Amino acid sequence: MITLAQDQEEIRKKEEGHEGDKNKNKKDKNNENKENKKNKKNNNKKKKKRKKKKKRKRKRKNMKNKSKINKKKEKKKKKKIMLRT
């Protein structure tokens, strides 16, 4: 037969074990949250870099197009001048 003292001791051990598990779970969750935050930060940095790259690319493309348009305009002007004289 189990005495009352032994029974209480077993219950206490079980409770302590549960508390230990709870603490372990808390630590795991905290670590997981930290990792998630890091990943989010890194992903945001990568997004920003990609956006900057795209912006630069767009700017270059626009500049090229502008120069092409300007060249065409100049050619037209020259043609007009040539036709006048």
Description:
By secondary structure, the chain is mostly helical. It has a domain at 41-78. It contains one helix and no strands. The longest helix is centred in the middle third of the chain and has 81 residues, at 4-84.
- Rg calc: 37 Å
Estimated share of beta-strand residues? under 5%
Outline type: rod-shaped
DSSP summary: helix tally: 1
Largest sheet entry: none
Termini Cα gap: 124 Å
Which ranges are low-confidence, i.e. pLDDT below 50, for 5 or more consecutive residues?
none
Order of helices and strands: H
Let me know the average pLDDT: 87
Biased composition (Basic and acidic residues): 9-36
Region (Disordered): 1-85
Biased composition (Basic residues): 37-85
What are the defining features of this structure?
rod-shaped; mainly alpha; 0% strand; 1 helix; 85 residues
Secondary structure layout plus pairing:
Layout: H1 4-84
Biased composition (Basic and acidic residues): 9-36
Biased composition (Basic residues): 37-85
Region (Disordered): 1-85
